[in-house]
Write a structure and sequence with these properties.
Layout: E1 4-19, E2 26-41, E3 52-60, E4 63-71, E5 80-90, H1 95-102, E6 108-120, E7 123-136, H2 147-158
C-alpha cells in the first residue's frame, strides 16, 4: 500500500538520553526542537536521487544544534547526505556527562562540532570537526580532588590526553 507523508512537523519538542545507572546520573536533552520532514514515502520516486528531507534545530547546554539531511529511505543500502553542527554548548553544564563517561569535569569552556556525511552504494564519506574554546579543566572546585585526579585533569586541560 503506497503511503506518502508530504509534511511532518514537530514544534517545541525534546529528546532525552537518561542513564540512571551511571555515576553521576546522566540526563542529557535537546530542547526547543523544531523538526520538519518532507516527502516521506514508501514508494519509489524515480525523479529524485534523495527525495526525502529532514531539517531539525534545537538547543542544548546553552548552545544550538542544526541538522539538514536528504535521503532515500527505500534504498537497500543507506543513501543520504547529512550536514550537522553544534555551536556554543557550555561544557560546564555537561559536567555530569563528562564525570560519568570521562571521569573528569571542567570549570570553563564551550564546545562546537561540525560534520558532513554522505552514503551511497555501500560507501560512506564525511568528516567530524570538534572545536573546544576556552577550556579550563582544573578549577577551584577541584581542590578536594585527590592527587591523581588533579594530575589527570591537568593533562586533559593541556591536551596531553583525551
Amino acid at each position: 500500500m503506497p503511503l506518502k507523508v508530504n509534511r511532518f512537523e514537530i514544534h517545541d519538542g525534546s529528546i532525552h538520553y537518561v542513564d540512571p545507572g551511571s555515576a553521576p546520573k546522566v540526563d542529557t536533552s535537546v530542547k526547543e526542537m523544531h523538526v520538519l520532514a518532507g516527502n516521506l514515502t514508501n514508494s519509489a520516486d524515480e525523479t529524485s536521487k534523495l527525495p526525502s528531507t529532514i531539517v531539525a534545530d534545537g538547543k542544548a547546554y546553552d548552545g544550538t544544534i542544526h541538522i539538514n539531511m536528504k535521503m532515500n529511505a527505500l534504498n537497500k543500502q543507506p543513501t543520504f547526505d547529512l550536514a550537522a553542527d553544534i555551536k556554543g554548548a557550555n561544557l560546564v553544564k555537561m559536567n555530569s556527562f563528562l564525570k560519568a563517561y570521562g571521569k573528569f569535569d571542567v570549570s570553563k569552556g564551550t564546545f562546537g562540532l561540525y560534520s558532513e556525511f554522505a552514503a551511497e552504494g555501500g560507501k560512506f564519506k564525511g568528516y567530524v570537526k570538534p572545536i573546544i574554546k576556552d577550556l579550563k579543566v582544573l578549577g577551584t572546585e577541584d581542590k578536594k580532588d585527590g592527587f591523581f585526579q588533579k594530575a589527570k585533569e591537568a593533562l586533559i586541560g593541556w591536551g596531553v590526553i583525551s
